[in-house]
Amino acid sequence: MANPRSYHTVVVSAHCPVSLEQNRQRMLQFQVENSETTRLADLAYTTNAPRMHHSLRAVYSGASVQDIIDGLRKDLNKTVTSQEKPAGKSPVVFIFTGQGAHYAGMGADLFRSSPPFRATVSSLQRVCAAQGFPPFVHLISDPDTAIETTTAAQIHLALITLEIALVDLWKTWGVHP
C-alpha cells in the first residue's frame, strides 16, 4: 500500500549543541550522497518511530528528500544554543492535521477493534444527527466509501470526530494532553 502522506517529518537530536551540529552535518552529508536512493517515508520513519529523542532537536518537514536537504543547509548556517530545563517528564501534546488529510476508512481499524473509539464515534454521530447534520461514520469506518460523493460537511464532521475519538482513546490508555 502506498503511503498516503505527501509531507514527512525528519528529526535530528542530540544532548548538546555541538553534537546537534555534528548530527545535522552527518545527516546532510548522507542525504546529499544518497538522495537518489533514499525514500522520504523511510527516512522519516527511521528518524522518528524507533527513537527516543534527546533534549536538543531539529525538525524538518518536506515533500521530498531535497526539501530536507534544503532545511538542513539553512539550519547549519545558524547557531544552536541550549537552554537548561528542569529534568522531568516532557508534556504530551496532541497535534492533528488540517482539512484535506481525509481518506475513506481513515479510522476503520480502530473503529473495528477498539470499543472506546467506536463508542465515541457513535456518540458524536448521534449528537450531530440530532442537530440535523448528515451521516459521516462511514467515512471513518468503511475503506470502500466513495469519498468523491461526500459533502464538505461530512468530511469536516468525520475529521473532527476522528480527532476527538483518538483523544478519548489515548486517555483510556493513560495518555493525557
Automatic annotation (TrEMBL):
Entry's Gene Ontology molecular function annotations: fatty acid synthase activity
Pfam families on file: Acyl_transf_1 (PF00698), CurL-like_PKS_C (PF22621)
Biological process per Gene Ontology, one example term: fatty acid biosynthetic process
Residue ranges of every copy of the Malonyl-CoA:ACP transacylase (MAT) domain listed in the record: 93-177
InterPro entries tied to this protein: Ac_transferase_dom_sf, Acyl_transferase_dom, Acyl_Trfase/lysoPLipase, PKS_NRPS_Biosynth_Enz
Keywords, alphabetical: Phosphopantetheine, Phosphoprotein
PANTHER family, A to Z: FATTY ACID SYNTHASE, NORSOLORINIC ACID SYNTHASE STCA
Protein name, entry field: Malonyl-CoA:ACP transacylase (MAT) domain-containing protein
Species lineage: Eukaryota, Fungi, Dikarya, Ascomycota, Pezizomycotina
